[in-house]
Inverse folding.
């Protein structure tokens, strides 16, 4: 049975188009309230946070109406990073947390993410239970049983202290000059304070949200602006977050962009150097082969999952491993928190720099990223790649020409009618040539 609304990371879409409408959000709040009203003892509550996009106010009000109509109390945090809601849901003993955010998308989009009481993503059965109630009419509990809404005035301070605690009280970043890009998103009033309170000298950019500029030419999806700022400020490094703060990308003092694969390697290498047991590392089909080879040199196990942090988390939990993530910068450190957290991940990388007394450029250089070339082929319908002998023969031919330090990935997009053809290897010119050769075969067989 497939879900109608929930995807791999909640519900997301364009504001004003179903399901991202006020009436749907009211019913979603009511359905979630009904599901979580039956959990625990006594009066239950749901935490609601949001990022900085203008539509967040509208959807916050709609969710508040729905949840309170179901007889569940609400704690409102205002703009807060997604991982902060996961943390606060757990520590405030709420039955669930809701984040109003479309992550790294532009302001025209919005969405909803849920967290369970332990600060992890909702299990499938709970999402199905919520969807089942969306077919029913909203009913309001008796007036004396209505939920109440209150604001948490110290939410930012609580989360700042948590972030700092993940690197220990003895670690200080005194003398380090950092540029922090908050993408005009929900970390704008959080991240600079975290690094400043740990002793760093911080230059903040992307900290003037107006409801419309979230992720606009800034943050982890546009890191060149951070690279330019690092060079202009002659900073030691730069850190960029996305609109809801669950992704991070870094820049070294030379202006080189350091992606999620490289950050994950830096963290894993430091843990291995300190003999901290973390099992292994979980990546995705898009993780650079250079990460796998570099971890293998450290004798660190590595496995891949489909793209999506839900799949990474599932694999980590099943294996009992503590580190995982995506090249986009969504990194999960389960030994210090319960979900992907951009600020916490950046702190883990900074701790590695401090522990090794080496600059970021030296640490990232110990992992050699292999060149990748990707071609998108538009397809009319779902295609069965595995059953097409012509394509499989072409893939085998490319793989044999690449050798052991190369790979091929054919992956349907999860959001558009596109088949992605990716080739990775040691030589960019060869990789690009093979990617286009293979894409011609794929296009002949599947193109719309």
């Amino acid at each position: 049975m497939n879900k109608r609304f929930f995807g791999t990371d909640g519900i997301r879409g364009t504001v004003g188009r179903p399901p991202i409408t006020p009436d749907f959000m009211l019913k979603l709040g009511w359905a979630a309230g009904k599901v979580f009203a039956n959990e625990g003892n006594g009066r239950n509550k749901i935490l609601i946070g949001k990022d900085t996009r203008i539509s967040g106010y509208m959807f916050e009000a709609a969710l508040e109406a729905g949840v309170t109509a179901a007889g569940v109390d609400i704690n409102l945090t205002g703009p807060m990073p997604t991982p902060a809601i996961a943390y606060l849901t757990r520590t405030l003993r709420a039955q669930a947390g809701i984040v109003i955010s479309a992550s790294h998308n532009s302001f025209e989009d919005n969405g909803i993410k849920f967290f369970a009481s332990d600060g992890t993503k909702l299990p499938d059965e709970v999402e199905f239970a919520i969807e089942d109630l969306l077919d029913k009419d909203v009913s309001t509990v008796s007036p004396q049983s209505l939920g109440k809404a209150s604001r948490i005035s110290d939410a930012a301070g609580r989360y700042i202290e948590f972030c700092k605690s993940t690197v220990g009280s003895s670690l200080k970043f005194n003398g380090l000059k950092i540029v922090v890009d908050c993408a005009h998103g929900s970390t704008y009033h959080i991240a600079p304070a975290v690094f400043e309170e740990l002793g760093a000298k911080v230059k903040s950019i992307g900290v003037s949200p107006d409801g419309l500029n979230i992720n606009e030419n800034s943050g982890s999806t546009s890191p060149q602006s951070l690279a330019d700022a690092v060079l202009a400020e002659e900073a030691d490094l730069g850190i960029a977050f996305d609109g809801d703060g669950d992704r991070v990308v870094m820049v070294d003092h030379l202006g080189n962009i350091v992606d999620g694969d490289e950050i994950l390697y830096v963290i894993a290498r430091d843990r291995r150097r300190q003999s901290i047991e973390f099992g292994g590392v979980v990546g995705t089909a898009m993780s650079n082969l250079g990460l796998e080879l570099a971890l293998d040199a450290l004798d660190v196990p590595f496995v891949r999952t489909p793209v999506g942090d839900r799949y990474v988390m599932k694999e980590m939990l099943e294996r009992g491993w503590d580190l995982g993530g995506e090249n986009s910068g969504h990194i999960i450190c389960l030994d210090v928190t319960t979900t992907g957290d951009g600020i916490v991940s950046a702190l883990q990388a900074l701790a590695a720099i401090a522990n090794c007394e080496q600059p970021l450029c030296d640490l990232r250089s110990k992992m050699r990223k292999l060149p990748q070339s990707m071609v998108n082929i538009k397809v009319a319908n779902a295609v069965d790649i595995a059953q097409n002998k012509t394509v499989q023969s072409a893939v085998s031919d490319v793989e044999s020409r690449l050798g052991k330090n190369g790979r091929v990935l054919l992956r349907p997009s999860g959001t558009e009618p596109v088949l992605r053809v990716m080739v990775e290897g040691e030589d960019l010119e060869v990789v690009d040539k093979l990617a286009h050769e293979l894409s011609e075969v794929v296009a002949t067989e599947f193109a719309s």
User: Anything to note?
Assistant: The two ends are 28 Å apart (CA to CA). The chain has a mean pLDDT of 94. Residues 282 and 316 are 6 Å apart (CA to CA). Residues 159-364 form a domain with the Alpha-D-Glucose-1,6-Bisphosphate; Chain A, domain 3 fold (CATH 3.40.120.10).
